[in-house]
Amino acid sequence: MHPELVHWGWFHIRSYGAMLALAFLVGTLLALVEARRLSLDEDKVVNVILVVLVSSVLGARALYVLEHVGEFRRQWSGVLAIWQGGLTLYGGVVAGTASGLWFARRTGLPMWTLADALTPSVALGTMFGRIGCFLNGCCYGHPTTLPWGVRFPADSFASLEFGDVPVHPSQLYFAIAGLLLFLGAWFARRRVSVPVLLHAGSATITESQLTSVALGLFALLMLIRIRRGAMAHA
Questions:
Q1: What gap in Å lies between CA 159 and CA 65, rounded to an integer?
Q2: Rg of the chain over CA atoms, in angstroms?
Q3: What's the rounded Cα separation, in Å, for the pair 50 and 56?
Q4: In this predicted structure, what is the pLDDT of residue 140?
Q5: I want to staple 23 with a disulfide (CB 3.0 to 4.6 A). Which of 118, 128, 164, 198 is the partner?
């Protein structure tokens, strides 16, 4: 709807980038509040967040490039031009989660306690990210006759695919889901505690093993998604 908030000569502020920056700013403030409550080293938490920020942007860009590799074959120099737009949320989630947990372990922070501190921030961040998608005009839904269907501008991706018909504002659906997840995590954070270790009979499952399994499943889902995208564009 409004992919650019400011356009003044060579200076551009894109909606998605602005919402991403807002997500990390608000998320960092919330994470520090939780870090203080959980007696975590705030300086180390900030360092983890910085690592997550950089790796999330790189991961989101990497997945976007993989999904649109045909567009970049003609000009590989554009791969790093993230200021021109082109980020995929799931790539950022995978890269940010993996790098955050690895760096937390390296710096001596308890990973799952840190995960408790960051969960509300991540949930709220998805809300801001999806609002950015709505403003950018990407990640739209299918045509609908429901009264809240949205008509995107004539030069938008939705208009190019479906014409001048209302489509589901799926970005806003996900934004609402992110807000609800944030509220649930925020109000449950003092009532729910997650054990660091699980026991299955005589076997002990450590946090590192749980992390590896979760990230492996996440990576498998991303590979399936990329494969389906490649088949759809074949």
A1: 23
A2: 20
A3: 10
A4: 87
A5: 128
Q: Is residue 178 part of a domain?
A: yes
End-to-end CA distance of the chain: 29
Domain that holds residue 16: 4-197
- Asked, for residue 75, whether it belongs to a domain, the answer is yes
Q: What is the pLDDT of residues 144-184, one digit of tens each?
A: 999 999 998 888 888 888 888 999 999 999 999 999 999 99
Contact (CB, 8 A) for 137 and 117:
no
Looking at the domain assignment, is residue 24 inside a domain? yes
Euclidean distance between CA atoms 42 and 118, whole angstroms: 12
Residue 171: what pLDDT? 92
**pLDDT for residue 198 is more than 90:** no
120: Cβ–Cβ under 8 A, 6 or more apart, which residues? 30, 34, 182, 185, 186, 189
Q: pLDDT per residue over 53-81, tens digit each?
A: 899 888 887 877 777 676 667 766 666 66
Give the number of domains in the chain.
1
